[in-house]
Write a structure and sequence with these properties.
Blueprint: E1 5-6, H1 24-27, H2 35-45, E2 73-74, E3 77-78, H3 79-90, H4 94-105, H5 115-119, H6 139-154, E4 167-172, E5 181-186, H7 188-196, H8 203-207, H9 220-232, E6 240-245, E7 252-255, E8 260-262, H10 266-271, E9 279-282, H11 284-289, E10 292-293, E11 299-301, E12 306-310, E13 313-317, H12 320-325, E14 334-335, H13 338-343, E15 353-356, E16 364-368, E17 371-374, H14 378-383, E18 391-393, H15 395-399, E19 402-403, E20 410-413, E21 416-421, E22 424-428, H16 432-436, E23 442-443, E24 454-456, E25 460-463, E26 470-473, E27 476-479, H17 483-488, E28 497-499, H18 501-505, E29 508-509, E30 517-520, E31 525-528, E32 532-534, H19 538-544, E33 553-554, H20 556-559, E34 571-574, E35 580-584, E36 587-590, H21 594-599, E37 608-611, H22 613-616, E38 621-624, E39 628-630, E40 635-639, E41 642-646, H23 649-654, E42 661-662, H24 665-669, E43 673-676, E44 680-683, E45 686-691, E46 694-697, E47 712-713, E48 720-724, E49 728-731, E50 739-743, E51 746-749, H25 753-761, E52 769-771, H26 773-778, E53 790-792, E54 799-801, ...
Parallel strand pairs: 1-9, 6-9, 8-10, 11-14, 15-18, 17-19, 20-23, 22-24, 25-28, 27-29, 30-33, 34-37, 36-38, 39-42, 41-43, 44-47, 46-48, 49-52, 53-56, 55-57, 58-61
Antiparallel strand pairs: 2-3, 4-5, 6-7, 7-8, 11-12, 12-13, 15-16, 16-17, 20-21, 21-22, 25-26, 26-27, 30-31, 31-32, 34-35, 35-36, 39-40, 40-41, 44-45, 45-46, 49-50, 50-51, 53-54, 54-55, 58-59, 59-60
Length: about 900
Amino acid sequence: MCLATGSWAGSAHAAFDPNNIISDSVFTNKNTMSVSAIQNFLNSKVPVCDTWHAAGSGSQGEQPPWTCLKDYNENGRSAAQIIYDTSQYYGVNPQVILVTLQKENGLITDTWPYRWQYRTAMGMGCPDGAPCDAQYYGFANQVDQGTRHLKNFFDQNPNWFIPHRAGINNVKFNPNAACGTSTLNINKGTSALYSYTPYQPNAAALANMYGLGDGCSSYGNRNFWRDFTNWFGSTTTPQLSVILKNGDNRLYLNEGGRGKRWIPSPDVLSAWGLDTYPVQAVDDSYFNSLPERAAISRITSTSYTTYYMDGGKRHWIANRDVGLIWGHDVNSAVGVENWTAETIPEGDPLGRFVRSTDTSDTRVWLMNGSTKNYIPNADILRKWGYNNNITSMSPGYINGKTEGALAGPKISVGGDDYFVTRGIAFKISGNMKNVWNLTSKVETVPQVIAFMPNLTGIQFVTEAGSSQVYLLNGGTKHLLSSPDMVRAWGGWNIPYTALESDDMSGFATGAAADKVVIQNTSGQKFTIDGRRHAVPDQQTLDAWTASGQSIPTYINDLVNILPSGPDTGIINQVIGNHLIFAMDRGQKVYFPSFTALYAWGYGRTSGISYIDISLGNQLPTKGVVGNVVSDGTNTYLLNAGKKYLSPSAAIANQWLLNNPFTVDAATTSRIPSGGTLTTTAKINNRYFLVDGDVGFDLDSSGDAYGASGSSVVLDDQYLGSLGQATYFAKSLDVSDGRIWFINKGTKTYIDTMDKLYTLGFAGSGPPITILKPATLNSIPTNNSAFNPLLIKKASSSPVVLNGTGYYAFGDLTIMQNWVGASTPLEVSDSIFNRFSVNGLAPNVANGSDPKIYTFENGTKRWIANPVTYQSSYAQYGLRRIPDFTLNLVPTGSNIN
């Protein structure tokens, strides 16, 4: 350390001097306090405002709530801002304004001030013994006008009336002239105080500094000096100096003769700027007369704020967190008198960024505790919230910090990741760590982000000012293709993480997120609608995806952010919408009715999955499906959750299946098979002939129509009944007059009325069943010639059918005579059993005409000669039979 030495003599701290209440330099030092310092000072005087204190006798009728000065705001400006702005405009020390506010109305320390105190805050326009002038009312107006008067008094403005100009003055002790005056030689600062408050304190007032004197005492200027000295130190600018005791190399800071402080190192000496002061060697008696105070430190506090000393300047530290950003704890600050610190020129307040006072070094650093991180460009500086506030510090200070990694937007604080941009720190924690996958992070102290808005980073990011929203997935961004897709991923009505364009480009770009079926990295498949719905099986997956569709993969931590919902279903309904649909290879097929829904095997609510509109809106609609579908190859009838194959065009026509709705084969494959359709169906253990969407009951003729165990079994709601079907059938097409005999599942054309009547149509026989052409055509046609005269059932002998019943054969000879070489027609049991026996088949019979016939070898022979009849045939007895029956027996040769 290079020392300059010389002589110096100190003096004890001076008492109140009415000639020099405040020095001119102190009065006009407008740089003693910033807005923040003023606010901190006000906060320190009234930590808690007594807002609801009961009104006292001096309230002038006012009632709570009360506003303390620290909380006061006028037209958007705080009291601290008003005081600061006024001090800067007029060039008056803001401490002068603060002390004047206290001496006039006690506003600085009042914990429940009345509103009238603000109206007359500086006592401006309030002469002794007279009402206040209303033109000066209002806090900001009072501060402005009061300070304006003080400054014009100080300036000795020749155009103003100035009661006490600088120089020789007679100054009263009290408004009572009998109390007398004294002659003073005053400076400009003191003349301003006497012109504002024209009395000096007498000995009695000074003897009781915090109380009352005698009847001739006045207190305004006494209180000004007292409060200023208590709060801010000397009013007369004491001088700092560097001293050492003869024979001792240790340097001390002499605080204007009030005390001494050891300067512990050259670093501290330089930081305070004291290395430019000449070192004064003092004798032992003077040195020992100075009270020894705590050694000075680079971290220094006054009664209302804290500073860090560097390069001969004091740098304001707003709070402990700011200090820790720089690696300095304000709790270790050494307290000094206010004026001691304020003698040192004010430098930039400590913020988060620093540059060297060496203008050749243009680098800007992020302060990070004991580390500094170089900010490589203006973009990074902007991301960190740069607002034209970079602290300039000495090269030695900056070089003393350890250089860390380059500052960037990715940091780590206490185990949590953060992404810094636009002056905001987005916290990335929990699942979001893997979602964002931040790499190359810079470790920082927590306080670095304490003065930035701290928000939570989420999986949805957007470029500020853009409407496009992206989904982050392990450090890759995927454009969300629509608002519905944003909602499907859970991004409904929440603020997204807004980044800058270069932030966005820092993430790899993946395929657009436009699929509602996804899988996680473990291979689990889900549908998403603000929830994740597990896909339970391959059938469900096929239903929700197009053939060959790829399924995008997202990391587990991203997928798990979505709350878990019920498993994905095949039959779905959008919440709040009455329409129900099935999924068919990623497309919606709507059910037009509950009947169609039942056909697919679902009830009104059972088996239905309820999904959000965000999912429903993204599914393309294929159409409206009923109970008839095709997979492109086969046509099926759906009934009660089963599919029934239509084996032919004829069956399809019969069942009205000609306009099937085409679905994917995967859709039909998941529906259980109920069998193959035939012309008949079984419902509630009864057989029906299907005739489109209605049916004929086959209770009495089921075997005739081929109804058997192979008939499909349908739900009881499928067919409407048209009554009983008979074994006679005819087309609904009036142009087709053919009548058919239905027997053993086939139809045979009845080409004569004789056959029709013989089969029982005569009299009260069964009616003809009228069928749709398609239904009639679906019954196989038996083109073999047939004669219904001789019939049998599987377990019986032939009989002769006669329209209302049948004739049995009494012996084999008679049967041979009737049957001959003919093969009896085998009929269904239900047909045979309809007829009852009418006796034995006769050997001799006639019809409505007188001809008499006998039967031989399957023919009828006319016994033309009556003699022959009498001699050979009359013995058998003559029986009359219906003409239509007789007509069906082939005619043989006559018998003469």
